[in-house]
Amino acid sequence: MGIYSLADYDADARSQINNSSHQSKRERAPMSFSLPTVQFDPTLLRKYDQPVPRYTSYPPATELKTEFDQVDFRAGIAVGNYKKTPLSLYCHIPFCETPCYFCGCNTVITQRKEFAIPYLDYTVRHIRQMAELIDNQRPVDQMHWGGGTPNYLSLDQVERLWMTINEHFRFAPDAEVSIEVNPRYLDRNYVLFLKDLGFNRISFGIQDFNPQVQEAVNRIQPEALLFNVMEWIREAGFESVNVDLIYGLPFQTLSTYRETINKTIQLDPDRIAVFNFAYVPWLKPVQRLIPQEALPKPSEKLDILQMAIEQLGQNGYQFIGMDHFAKPNDELAIAQRQGQLHRNFQGYTTKPESDLIGFGMTSISMLHDVYVQNHKRLKDFYQALDRGILPIERGVRLNQDDVIRRTAIMELMCQYQLSKDDFEEKYHLSFDQDFDEYFAAERYELKQLEADGLIRLFHNCIQVTPAGRLLIRNIAAVFDTYLRQKIMSNFSKAI
Asked: Residue 431's pLDDT band (boundaries 50, 70, 90)?
C-alpha cells in the first residue's frame, strides 16, 4: 500500500484520517475538510473491481427508453426558459477516416468526405429547430465539439457550423469553448484557425506513445507529430489543453507505459485523462481485431495504474477524480479545492448546473428532470428532421427520488464528501424524515464501505477517504437504485 500526494492537506485532516477508528460515529465532521491524498490499495482495488456506471449522469444513460413522450422534453426546455437556466452546448461530429479499435464512441467510419456535407446541412437544421424552443437570452457557459473527429470537417464547414450556433445562442464572456481533435489530421493552420474562430480549449488523444501499441489499436501517430501539435496549440494561445491516455491496451507493460507517462509530462498539458480500456467485443465488434492474448494481465494493469498516479502526482498534477488529473492552477483543480466542481455528460466542469443541449446524431441533452438522446443512425436522424420533428430516439423523465439520488451521487463524485445537513435543507427532508431515514436501505452497504476504509460516516456528513477516491464510482453506486436491477456486464469495470 502506498500514498501519493496529489493534493496537499493539513495536519488536522491527516489526523482525522489516521485516528478514524477511535472516533464516535455521532461526531460531527468539520465541513472545512481538506481534500486528502490518494491512497493506492491493490487489495481494495481488486475487491471492488466490479462493473459500475461512470455517473456522468444519474440515472445513467442506460436508463433512457424508446417509450418516451417528447412533450416532456419540450416542457423541460420551457422550465429552463422561465428560470433562465444557463446552457451547455454539445455538437457531435461522428465521422472518422479509420477506426480506432479501442474506441467505444458512436462513429461513422468513411474516407469519403462528401458524407459530411448532408450531415452538416441536417445539423444546421437541428440547431435552428432547437433554437426555436430555447430563449435566446439564456447564456451559454460551455460548448464542446466531440466525435468522432470534429476536425474531419473542412475549415469552411467548421466556420459554417460555428456561425450557425453563434447566430442563435448568446455566449457568456467567460464561456468555455472546447473541441476534440485527432492529431493525425491536423496542421498548424487548422489549429490557429480554431483559436481565431473562438475556441479556447482543446483536447487530443495520445493513448500510448509506443509504436507497437499504436499499431495494435490502429492508431499510429509518431511522437514528433504529437509534440508538433502541442507546439501549434501553445503558439495559438489556447487557455487549456487536455490529452487522453489509455491503460490496459495490448502490448502495454509497466516499463513501456512509464515512458508514455514521462513523454506526456514533457508535453506539459494542463489536464490529463488516464482511462481504463474496457475490452467489450460483444458490444464493440471492432475490438475483435485486438489480439486479446496481448492485453496486460489484471495485476500488471494495477501496477501501471499505480505508476501513473505516482508519476503524475510527483510531477505536479492534482488528482481530480476517477481518471482525471490537472495542474494545481487549472480551473478544475481550483474549483475542486473550493468545493465548486460539477459533473455532466461532458465530464468534470467548473460551470454550475446548466441545461445541456446536444446537436447532431447520438448526442444527449440533459435538462433538470429530462434526459434525451438523438437518433444513433444517420438515416433516422435525417428522416426525423425531414418530418419536422425532434430527432429523439429515447429519453427519460426523472422523478423526485432520481433528483435526490443524483445530488448525492454528484456531490460524492465531485467533492468527495456529502453534507447531510445541506442535503436535508435542500430537499426539505427534515419535515418528514432525515437523511439517514431516507437512505435507510443503503445504511448496510455504507457501513461495509466504512469497514473497508473507503468512507467515514459522521453524524452530519459522509467523507471519502484517500483509499476511497480511486473507487468513487463504487461508493456512488450505493445510491443507485437502477443498478440493483441491472446486469452488471452492461458497464465497464471501475479499474
From this structure: low
306's grid cell: 499505480
CA 105 to chain centre: 13
Helix/strand/coil for 465:
coil
- Each residue's pLDDT tens digit, 81-95: 999 999 999 999 999
For the whole model, what pTM was predicted? 0.88
**Cell numbers describing residue 123:** 445539423
| Positive or negative torsion for Cα 303, 304, 306, 310 | positive
What number of other Cβ atoms are within 10 A of residue 483's Cβ? 19
CA distance 190 to 232: 9
Distance CA(397)–CA(79), nearest Å, equals 14
Query: What residues contact residue 15 under an 8 Å CB cut-off, 6+ apart?
Result: none
pLDDT of residue 29: 56
- For the stretch 320-336, pLDDT in tens is 988 899 999 999 989 88
Residue ranges and CATH numbers for the domains of the chain are 2-54+400-490 (1.10.10.920), 63-357 (3.80.30.20)
